[in-house]
């Protein structure tokens, strides 16, 4: 999947987990940036919450990370995200950053 993408595409995978529902909860994300190895992010969420909160926090930490990366490098254009269904019944969102 990653080999077929534009080299300027940011690809992120996110997941929230919960031991019991509600229960102790955490969030994790993996992001592939242009010209950078993958970056893994994780964050404990709460001692007692639902898995949905973990899923949302996983998206939040990846968006915060991408915003910080945008401050480090000049970006000429950000294409509109495109949601695409895939074989795993989840949606993929593509964000393409073009360096100046």
TrEMBL record:
<dbReference type="InterPro" id="IPR012337">
    <property type="entry name" value="RNaseH-like_sf"/>
</dbReference>
<dbReference type="GO" id="GO:0003676">
    <property type="term" value="F:nucleic acid binding"/>
</dbReference>
<dbReference type="InterPro" id="IPR002156">
    <property type="entry name" value="RNaseH_domain"/>
</dbReference>
<feature type="domain" description="RNase H type-1">
    <location>
        <begin position="6"/>
        <end position="100"/>
    </location>
</feature>
<dbReference type="GO" id="GO:0004523">
    <property type="term" value="F:RNA-DNA hybrid ribonuclease activity"/>
</dbReference>
<feature type="region of interest" description="Disordered">
    <location>
        <begin position="79"/>
        <end position="100"/>
    </location>
</feature>
<dbReference type="Pfam" id="PF00075">
    <property type="entry name" value="RNase_H"/>
</dbReference>
<dbReference type="InterPro" id="IPR036397">
    <property type="entry name" value="RNaseH_sf"/>
</dbReference>
<protein>
    <recommendedName>
        <fullName>RNase H type-1 domain-containing protein</fullName>
    </recommendedName>
</protein>
